[in-house]
Write a structure and sequence with these properties.
2 copies of one chain form a homodimer. Chain A is an alpha+beta fold. Chain A contains 18 helices and 17 strands. Chain A has an 8-stranded mixed β-sheet. At the A-B interface, strand 2, helix 6, strand 7, strand 8 and strand 9 of A face strand 2, helix 6, strand 7, strand 8 and strand 9 of B. Strand 9 of chain A pairs antiparallel with strand 9 of chain B, so a sheet runs across the interface.
Chain lengths: ~625, ~625
C-alpha cells in the first residue's frame, strides 16, 4: 500500500515577502499554536500581515470558484449545512471530477462506486478552498484559505485531514466570530484521510457515538475542551498543594492490602498465561508432562560430579556449591512428586508463591492508607493518580479506573480538612473560570449551557455545612417531594436526597458531616457519642459527592477494636496499627474524584465522556 | 489497652505574654511549619520572641539537671553520642526512676524487666529536656526546650514521639547550625512510642534497614529529603509542559494491549478468588514447596560468579564447570516454573468472558501509544503516572511499578523532541538547585557528596549528541579499558559502555541517536537507510538511560510492515494503524524515568530507595 503521507508542495513559486515573524512560535516545532493567534485579546488582529506556519486537522471544508467575487466569503452556516448532508468523500468526488480516479485508488475502491446524483453542479477549473482547522491548543478553529491548484494530485483535503501550511495572516473581510484567517503560501505536509472509513466526517457527532472510536474522539472540539479542562484541574490541583508546602507522594498502584470498606478489587498476577495471543497452542503444549525421570537423572549426574570433585580434591567452593545445588534438586523432586499426586487446585486454592510478588496483590482502591504513613512523618502530603474498583453503582456504570486527588494532613481535625477540601474545590473551579474561559464557552454551547453559572456559584461563597442528623431533619420536613429511599438514621443518603440538598435547597455545594459509624470505613475517627464518626462528604450540584473525607482514628485501642468489629484481617493492618503505636498524631484527609469535577465543570451527563480512556464493566478499549 | 494519645497539658499556669503572632502559620492546622521558621534567610532570627505552635516527631533527646548553669546547652555531639549507645527506653527508665512503673505498663511489660546497671547516675528532681523535632516540611530539625515537669506521667517523650507544643522562639546562646530554638510553654498533644518495638531509635539507620519498615521510613531525614526531591520533580515536570501549552492526558493503567517491545506484563483479573483477604497469604506461608525464588537467586549468584571468573581470567576448568552448573540450574528452574504454572489455569484454557472486562487485560507498560492518539488531535500532550513491567534487568532488581513523565508532540521530528527532552532534564535539575537546596545539602551529606556538583554539570551546558555509530567508533577506540560486551553494530550499548560515555568521556549527559532498527520498538520511524531508526536515549552520569524517545513511524505502509515483521497481533494494532490512515502527522515523543532522575539528583545507589513504595519481584510490602 502506498504511503498516506505526501511531501512538501509549494503552491506558489514566488519568493517569500519579507514579513516579520509571528509572535510565539512553538518551541519544539515549526508551528505556531492556534491558541497564540486566536486566543489573544485582539483575536489575532495585531498579527495581521505576519507569516506563520500552522498545523492542524480539518474540521470543515468549503470552496468557491475563482470567478466569484474575490474577498467575499461564502456564508459559513449555509455552506457548512450543505456539506453535512453528504459525506466528504461524496462531496469531493461529485464536485471535483478529476479527483475521482485518484480518490478511488486512495480509498481502495477498485470496483464500481455508486455515483450519486450531484447535489450541486460540479465546479470546473481552479477554485478557492476554505478549511477550518484545529490543532488542539484551543477550542477555536482557524480559517485557512488556499487555491485548489496548490495541493498535489492525491492530496484530497477533506474533514479529518492533517495539514501543515505556511501562510500569511489576513483580516476576514466580514468578521463574525473570528477576525483573522490564513492565506496559504505553501503546503508543507498533508496527512490524508481514508474518507470511506473515517467515522468523523459529520461536523456534529454525539458524544455517545464518539465512544466507539476512542482513538479518534479527541478530534471532536467538545472532547478537546473536556480534555483541556481535565488537564487544567490536575495542574491546578498540584499547584494548590505545592504552594501550601504539601509533598506529593507516589502511592503504590499494586498493593497487598485487599480489604477495607471498598468493593471488590482487581487482582494483579503473572500466573495466567501472558503470551499475547501468539502461542496459545505452544503454551498448552508446554504444560504437558514434566518428566520426573529427567530430574532424577540429573540428580544422579550431580551426585557423580560431586564424587569426582571430592576425589580430585579441587576447589572447595565449587564442591560446596555443587552440594547445595544437589540438595535443592532433591527438594525439587520431592515437591514435584507431591504435586503430581495431588489434584490440580481450583482458582480459589491457587498457589501464589510462584506469582511475581509471591503473594496475592491487587490494584489499589485508595491512596489513603499509604498516604497516612507519609503524613505521620512529613505532615502534609497529597497524591494525584488512579485508583481502581470493580463494583458497579446501582444507577449508572461506574468507572473501574478513576483519577483522584487525595490529601492527608497531620496535626488536623475534621474542621481543618473540611476547610482544605472546600478551598481545593473552589480553587479548581476558580482556575477554570480564570484560565479556561474559551473551553467553558465551548462546552456550554456543545454540552450544557449552565456550566459557567454553576462554576460561578461554587466560587461565590462558602459551602453549606450541616451534620448528617441535620440533613435527615431537613429531608424529613420536605413535603412537596417523596423520596424513593427511606430517610432513617443510619442509612446512607440516596443520590436523590443528595441532589435535593445541593441542587434544590442550597443551590451550591453542601458539606454533610458527622455520619453514622456504620456507613463509613473502619479508619474514620469515632466521635465521643460512640454512634457517629468524623467523616464528611462534599455534595456538588448536578454530580453529587465529589469529595469524601474524614478525621482518621489516631487511637490505637479504638482502631484495633474497629478492625476486629468489622472482621478485617488483623495481620494485614499491622503496619497501619503501628502508625498509632509509634508517635501517633491527629490527622485527617480526603479524596476528590477528578471525573466528578470534570462533570461539574462541563455538565457532562455520562462519566464515560469525562476522562480520556474510560474503563467500565465489559469495556477496556485500546 | 489504653489510648496512646494523651490530652492537653499546660506546663505553666502563668498567663500568656502578649506576643505578636508568628509569621506564616499553616492554613489548615494550628501549627507553623518548621520550614517557615528554619528555612528563612535569617534562619529564624527575625522571629525571636514570637509565639508559635509547632508539631513534629522527635529525632533526638537530651537532658540536663535544672541545677546546671541556665542557658548553657549541653554539647550536642557528645550528648547525642551518649544517647545512641542505649535504647531510649533504657535511657529513660534508668534516668527517671519514677517513670519506670508507667513505662512498663505502656510497653506492655508486666513481668520482670531486666534492670541494666545505669550508664550514668540517674538524675533526680526536675530537669530540662532538649528535643530535636522534624515535621517533614524541611530537612532541618528544630530544637525544643522544656521542663521535665511539663509532661504528664505516662508521656515518655523519646525518639519517634509525636509532639504538638506551643512556645516562644528564642536565640540559641551558642548558635552553630541553627540560631533559634523553641522554649515550650504548653504541651498540646503527645503521641508516645512503644520504645520496646520501635525500630528507628538509632539516630543513623541505613537505607537498607529502613526498607524493612516501609510505613516508618519517611521519618528518616534522608528519606524525607528524597521524597521532597521526588515531589519537586513531579511538580516541575507538570509546570514545564503546562507552561508550554501541553495538555495532560490521563492515559489508562488497565489496557487490552499486551504486545509491543516490552517485557512480560501483569495481567489484571477478577477471575481469581477475591474474597477479602481471608488468609490467602497464610496459605502461601504454609506452602511447603521448594522456594523458586531461592533458585533464581542462586542462578543470579552463579552468573555473578562466572562473570568474576571470566574477569579474573583464572582456572578455565572452574569456569567451564561453573557454566555447566549454571546451565543445569537454569533448566531446572524452567522445568519447575512449568510445573508450577500447570497448577494455575492458563490463558488457553481460561474463559475471560466472565472476567470484568470480558477479555484479558493488562497493566500498561507505557503510555506512549495512547498518548499518540491524543497527539493526533491535540498536538502537544503529556502524562505523569505509573507504568508496569515484570521483567528483571540483568544487573539489578528493577522496579515493577515506575512513575514516568511521557510526552508526545505532533508536527515534530527527532531533533525537536531531543531538544524538548534535554530542556526537560535541565529544567528538572535547575528547579532542584533553585528550590530544593536544603534537601540537596542533606542528601549530599547523608547519601552521596557529589550530587550538587552533578546537577550543576547537567544544567551548565548542552548535552553531548552522537549517533549510535559514532558511539561505537568511540568505544572501539578505547584502549585503556576492555568492555565485557562486544561493541558490534546492532547490539544495544551495555550499561558499562553507556557509563563510559557519560561518566568518563563526556562527564555530562549524552544523547545517543539513530539506533539500529533491531534494538528499538516497532513504532519508531525507519530512516531512509532502512537499517537505522529515529530513536534516541539520554544517558546521564551515574544512572545511565533516563530518557528514551523517538520519532514515530507516521507512514501507514511502513508501520503495517513493521507489525508484520515482528509478528505482533495485527488486530490489536488496528486502532494504532488507523491513526496513520486518517490525518497522519509527523510526531515524536519520549519518556523519562522519574526514579532515575531521583537517583541522579540524590546519588542513591539502589532504585528501591528512590520511590516511596518500591515494588520488585517478590516484594510488594503494604
Amino acid at each position: 500500500m502506498a504511503s498516506r503521507e505526501t511531501t512538501v508542495s509549494d503552491g506558489s513559486n514566488q519568493p517569500e515577502a519579507p514579513l516579520p515573524p509571528a509572535a510565539e512560535p512553538s518551541k519544539y516545532s515549526k508551528t505556531t499554536a492556534l491558541k497564540s493567534i486566536l486566543n489573544r485579546d485582539d483575536k489575532g488582529q495585531g498579527l495581521v500581515g505576519r507569516r506563520v506556519v500552522v498545523g492542524g486537522w480539518v474540521n470543515s471544508r468549503k470552496e468557491r470558484a475563482e470567478s466569484d467575487a474575490p474577498g467575499q466569503l461564502p456564508a459559513p452556516r449555509a455552506a457548512a449545512a450543505q456539506s453535512q448532508d453528504v459525506s466528504c468523500y461524496d462531496l469531493l468526488v461529485q464536485r471535483v471530477p478529476f479527483l475521482r480516479p485518484i480518490a478511488r485508488i486512495l480509498v481502495g475502491v477498485i470496483g464500481a462506486q455508486p455515483e450519486k446524483p450531484a447535489a450541486s453542479p460540479a465546479k470546473e477549473g481552479p477554485f478557492t478552498v476554505y478549511l477550518r482547522i484545529n490543532d488542539g491548543s484551543c477550542s477555536s478553529n482557524l480559517q485557512v484559505v488556499m487555491d485548489s491548484s496548490m495541493s498535489l494530485p492525491g492530496q484530497v483535503i477533506t474533514v479529518g485531514t492533517c495539514i501543515l501550511v505556511q501562510g500569511v495572516l489576513q483580516k476576514i473581510l466580514a468578521p463574525k466570530k473570528h477576525v483573522v484567517e490564513l492565506r496559504v503560501e505553501k503546503i508543507l505536509h498533508v496527512g490524508v484521510v481514508d474518507v470511506k472509513s473515517y467515522p468523523l466526517t459529520k461536523s456534529r457527532i454525539s458524544l455517545e457515538s464518539l465512544r466507539d472510536h476512542p482513538h479518534l474522539r479527541p478530534r471532536s472540539i467538545a472532547v478537546g475542551s473536556v480534555t483541556r479542562i481535565c488537564s487544567n484541574l490536575i495542574y491546578t490541583g498540584h499547584g494548590f498543594f505545592q504552594k501550601k508546602g504539601f509533598i506529593h507522594v507516589q502511592t503504590p498502584i499494586i498493593t497487598s492490602m485487599n480489604a477495607g470498606n471498598h468493593g471488590k478489587m482487581f487482582q494483579v498476577t503473572t500466573l495466567l498465561s501472558n503470551s499475547g495471543g501468539k502461542d496459545k497452542s505452544a503454551a498448552v503444549h508446554e504444560h504437558e508432562g514434566v518428566d520426573l525421570e529427567a530430574f532424577r537423572a540429573s540428580i544422579r549426574e550431580k551426585s557423580k560430579r560431586i564424587d569426582e570433585l571430592r576425589r580430585s580434591d579441587s576447589n572447595k567452593e565449587a564442591l560446596s556449591a555443587a552440594e547445595q545445588d544437589l540438595q535443592r534438586s532433591k527438594e525439587l523432586v520431592v515437591m514435584l512428586e507431591k504435586q503430581q499426586q495431588s489434584t490440580a487446585p481450583s482458582a480459589g486454592e491457587m498457589d501464589f508463591s510462584n506469582d511475581f510478588f509471591s503473594r496475592p496483590v491487587y490494584l489499589s482502591a485508595s491512596a489513603g492508607l499509604h498516604l497516612e504513613s507519609y503524613a505521620c512523618a512529613l505532615s502534609s502530603v497529597y497524591t494525584i493518580g488512579p485508583v481502581f474498583e470493580t463494583d458497579e453503582s446501582k444507577s449508572a456504570a461506574k468507572l473501574a479506573e478513576r483519577w483522584m486527588i487525595e490529601a492527608e494532613l497531620a496535626f488536623t481535625e475534621l474542621q481543618d480538612v473540611m476547610n482544605c477540601a472546600e478551598d481545593l474545590v473552589q480553587s479548581l473551579c476558580y482556575s477554570l473560570l480564570e484560565t479556561a474561559g474559551n473551553d467553558l464557552k465551548c462546552v456550554s454551547k456543545q454540552i450544557e449551557k449552565n456550566c459557567i453559572k454553576r462554576l460561578k456559584s461554587i466560587v461565590s461563597g462558602s459551602f453549606a455545612r450541616i451534620t448528617y442528623s441535620e440533613a435527615l431533619n431537613i429531608l424529613n420536613q420536605v413535603k412537596d417531594k417523596s423520596f424513593l429511599s427511606k430517610v432513617g438514621w443510619g442509612n446512607t443518603l440516596s443520590e436523590e436526597q443528595e441532589s435535593y440538598l445541593a441542587d434544590e435547597l442550597y443551590k451550591r455545594p453542601v458539606i454533610v458531616h458527622e455520619y453514622p459509624k456504620g456507613v463509613k470505613p473502619f479508619y474514620v475517627r469515632v466521635s465521643d457519642d460512640g454512634r457517629t464518626v468524623s467523616a464528611f462528604d462534599i455534595i456538588a450540584p448536578k454530580v453529587g459527592v465529589v469529595v469524601r473525607g474524614s478525621q482518621k482514628e489516631e487511637r490505637m485501642d479504638v482502631i484495633i477494636k474497629r478492625i476486629q468489629e468489622l472482621g478485617l484481617p488483623h495481620e494485614q493492618y499491622e503496619w497501619y496499627i503501628d502508625l498509632r503505636k509509634h508517635g501517633s498524631v491527629k490527622r485527617s484527609g480526603f479524596s476528590l474524584d477528578i471525573e466528578k469535577m470534570v462533570m461539574t465543570a462541563t455538565g457532562l451527563a455520562d462519566v464515560k465522556d469525562a476522562i480520556p480512556f474510560p474503563r467500565v464493566r465489559g469495556h477496556a478499549k485500546l
